[in-house]
Each structure stands twice: as C-alpha cells, then as structure tokens.
Amino acid sequence: MKKNVTKFRGSRTCGGGTHKNRRGGGSRGGRGNAGGCKHHFVRNYMNGMAYGKHGFKRPQKVLSNKPIVNVGELDELAEQLVQYGEAHKQGDIYHINLAELEYPIVKVLGNGRITKPMAITVSECSARARSKIEEAGGSIEEYVPSVKEVDIEPEETRDPDVEEDV
After folding, report:
1. What is the pLDDT of residues 88-129, one digit of tens each?
2. What is the DSSP letter of 5?
C-alpha cells in the first residue's frame, strides 16, 4: 500500500475535494475555541472543559476564616503542647489557652473523642464541644483580651473655661 505522501504526489488538492475546500478556519469547524459547546463538545469534554455553568460563589458575608480545632485533635496534641510549653498540666487536668498560642485558635468544634480532662480557654466554642469537654471532666473558659490603657485624659480633669483652637 502506498503512503499518502506518495499517493497524493502531483495532486493539486491531496484528497481534499476542490481547491476551495481547505481554505480558512471553516474547514476545521472554526478557529480557536469555536464550537466548544456545540459541534466540538466531545473534544472540549475530553480536555476537561465542561459545558454550561458549574457551582456557585458563596457570598462574602457568609465566609469566615476563623482558625478552628476539634476536641479530638486537642486530645491527641495535649501531651505535645505540654512538652513545648504551650500548655501546662495540674494533677490530671491539662490547662490550654488557645487564644495565646503562636497561631491563635478562635473556635473549638466538637468532632472526635476526648479522653483527657482539659480546661480550655478560647473565644468561641460549639455546644457539642462544650458538652464533650464537660463530660470528660474538663471546663471551658471564655477568653477575654486584656484592655490596654488609653492615653486620653477623662473629661472631668479638663478645665472647662479654657477654649481650644481647632
């Protein structure tokens, strides 16, 4: 059998019909991504480009980037936190302040098992996490950040007769 190169040697159109047939992008179904949702659907689908719209974008007010931890993870990491000096142990109770870690944790969630009694200081805690910690003999303390002293003098100490130029 002859190769196509030799088979079409001397031919003007090389098997493409008339000389007008292989001009422009129309002979290949359009240029670029033309027909991606229509006649080139399978080609696009095989390349990972699916037809139509997919998913949705969550509203910004719903999104939160709070650092969280589950009680099961705290139970596993309690010994390591004591070794690194991030927590301390009094008797058999682990005292962990999650808000004053190097990377502070804002919320404790209730996934996992807890076997050790822990006294945890944190800003927020889910109801399930609170019940699991209290069942294990621990407690949750709400973290209140320390208020820094403000350098503004109270209104009572100001002299009311002196007017200030603004």
Report:
1. 999 999 999 999 888 999 999 999 999 999 999 999 999 999
2. H
- CB proximity list for 76: less than 8 A, separation 6 or greater: none
Return the amino acid letter for 97: N
The pLDDT-based confidence of 149 (bands split at 50, 70, 90) is: very low
Rounded Cα gap, residues 136 and 69, in angstroms: 17
- Which H or E run includes 87? strand 87-90
Burial degree of 96 (CB within 10 A; 0-12, 13-18, 19+): buried
pTM beyond cutoff 0.85: no
Q: Report how far residue 83's alpha carbon sits from residue 77's, in angstroms, rounded to the nearest whole number.
A: 10
For residue 83, CA distances in Å to 72, 78, 87, 122, 160 come to: 19, 9, 8, 20, 58
Question: Tokens for 116?
Answer: 């050790």
Instruction: Note whether 30 and 24 are within 8 A (CB).
Output: no
Alpha carbon distance 122, 104 (integer Å): 9
